[in-house]
Amino acid sequence: MDTIASLFSFITTPVSWVIVQFHSVYGALFGPDTGWAWGLSIVSLVILIRICLIPLFVKQIKATRAMQTLQPEMKKIQERYKNDKQRQSEEMMKLYKETGTNPLSSCLPILAQSPFFFALYHVLNAIASGDTIGVINKSLLESAQKAHIVGAPLAAKFTDSASKVEALGASLTDVRVVTAIMIVLMSASQFFTQRQLMTKNVDTTVKTPFMQQQKMLMYVFPVMFAVFGINFPVGVLVYWLTTNVWTMGQQMYVIHNNPTPGSKAQAAYLERLAKHVTQHHKVGKRRDRVIVKAIVAKGRDRNEFERKFINGLSKAGLAAQADGTVIKSDTAAVAQAEDGSPTTAAGTPKRQQPKRQSKSQRQHGGPAGAKAAGETEPKTSLTKADEPEDAKPASAATKGGAKPAGGTRSKAQSGQRKGPQRPKSPSKK
């Protein structure tokens, strides 16, 4: 490990200078030889580095989402050229070039942070060995060796011998208890960060091998931290625990405010946004307007959560615009006409379906729809029971060429066949 760390010796001087500057500030508050002064100096170094890496973190988010979008296309290429690895690689590189995606972009924060990590390891290892390094002179070296974090020296390791730990002014039990707790916290924070990413901020509509790889890394990384952590000095454990906590908080902020499309986090975000917009009738924050603008631009390519968001605005009488704002809409989906009947999106009353009539209603001419709407029942012809006694028979009414009322045929008498009848032959007496 010393050989690997020595490769980054060119950056040990800047790292040691930053630590000394922070130590001069915290030393004036807590004392120059305390663990608080040196521990907070390391924490401040982490915060400074991570602030400088925020642009790379943004690129990492964009690269990760771009890779998730390309997973279906990559799977098709793998299946099409599964017997030709060279052609498969060529098609993959062509796809990356066409879409402007770089798989290494998702590793940029880790790659950029690694020189500082190894430089800090080299500085703390030199402190444990009693060697000056960078801008840390003899007096600062003695002060750093006296510094203890909860009873554990800054440069002590879990694997150190009892004699080496005693030389740093501490007991082996204290060092191993503190380092073990810090290793557990470091591994747990890494696991929670990766699990949060897999359960909340992954597009659930696409099932690809990339998701399986991320799920595997969720369990592999904590184990790696636990294995390598026993060889890290306490100061490096403070550094790595701080950067894990920073990453976890930074990811929580991104998931809450800028989730991946199609993820559970997006569903929760759009639900909160819809509630705010329907209450205030406007999109307040700029980042919210950017997301609404992107949803409107998708058109028919919106996912389930985005369609639900747009429909919810329509039901509330609002319409999302291309610039990310919302306006009141006169064509609300649940608007009502003046008579209180429900209307369509165009504002026209919905067609009322007539109720099905029963057999008795059809025979007596009583339409159920008219009764339900409050209309008067239309007049019908007199029934046989209501016919006056002096009414003319139907045969008399039709002599002058008049047709029977209602245009219906006269019914045949009971027991007589329809059509012309054969004359009866005279009976023989």
Please tell me about this protein's structure.
The protein is mainly α and about 425 residues long. The chain contains 17 helices and 4 strands. It has helices at about 1-5, 10-30, 35-50, 55-80, 85-100, 110-130, 140-145, 160-165, 170-200, 210-230, 235-255, 265-280, 285-300, 305-315, 360-365, 370-375, 395, and strands spanning about 150, 150-155, 320, 325-330. A two-stranded antiparallel sheet has the order 1-2. Strands 3-4 form a two-stranded antiparallel sheet. Strand 3 and strand 4 (about 325-330) form a beta hairpin. Helix 2 (about 10-30) crosses helix 3. The model is unreliable at about 330-350 and about 370-415 (pLDDT under 50).
Outline of this structure?
The chain is mainly α. The protein has helices at 2-6, 12-30, 35-52, 54-80, 85-99, 108-129, 138-146, 162-167, 172-200, 209-229, 234-257, 264-280, 286-298, 304-315, 359-364, 368-373, 394-397, and strands at 148-149, 152-153, 318-320, 326-328. The protein has a two-stranded antiparallel sheet. The chain has a two-stranded antiparallel sheet with strand order 3-4.
